[in-house]
Specification:
This protein has about 300 residues and is of the alpha+beta class. The protein is built from eleven helices and 14 strands. It has helices spanning about 40-50, 60-65, 70-75, 90-95, 95-105, 130-145, 185-190, 205-220, 255-265, 270-285, 295-305; strands spanning about 10, 15, 15-20, 25, 85-90, 110-115, 125, 145-150, 155-165, 170, 175-180, 195, 225-235, 240-245. The two termini are about 35 Å apart.
Amino acid sequence: LPADPTVGGLVPVDGGRVRVGDLTPVDVVIPVLHGTFGEDGTVQGLLELANIPYVGAGVMASAVGMDKIIMKTLFARHGLPQVNFRYCSRRDWERNRQAVLSEVEQLGYPLFVKPANLGSSVGISKARSREELVPAMDLAACYDRKIIVEEFVPAREVEVSVLGNDDPMASLPGEIIPLNEFYDYEAKYVEGKSDLVIPARLPAETMLELQRLAIKVFKALDCAGMARVDFFLRKDNGAVLVNEINTIPGFTSTSMYPKLWEATGITYPELLDRLIELALERHREKNRSRTTFQPPGRALIEQVK
């Protein structure tokens, strides 16, 4: 896929030479990609350069949604409730472990340690003591140059799907009951490793609050098309906490995103049709904006013409 808006499709490469004559036009791209280069804004940037419509968040929202530290900092600026957290760089951890440990231990055990820029629960550990915290930090540092540590809150895990562009809608919430200690990689992608309760058994006012917050999160990042917002529902007082947003939610047989929309009244084929429509709508809206300077007088003359 050349990063050239005049091409508009896929071209084969033969011996390092591009055969433009064998162009395969592309109408819309659905990025079915997780993690680095897939949902961090990289492939979205390529599609922007190629001027091809695509499903889902743009470059900025994708990058922010992938970086848990920037994402949670933005949540805080928007007054969104969330768990307390600390973060450090890999270099900080390697140079002064004692200072980092003293800082993150202020949160109190147990702790969740995560790479800042991966999804699907890769590289995540639960640490109940310093003896477990040190290897957990080492593991996270293997996956990213930034590490985030979050306090553990006994809570139910609830998710809400969001669909739309500037006027998004939220699905009915669903609850995940992991059969492992927490909702890890295996629980997300292997059938039978977690139970899904759709819709979640919650009071009506809690359901509405989850939907309201999901839309607020979606708009805070300026998302487009689709996203899934994950929440914690505290077991002690019922408070709702935002965990994270996923700008390319899973679409497998075990995935919440399509299941939540089905429970809300949108079938899988209808969901795909709507996502494609939203991608085309967003693309048209983007192309309305000028990218070069034009003197006011000339713009007025063109409007008169």
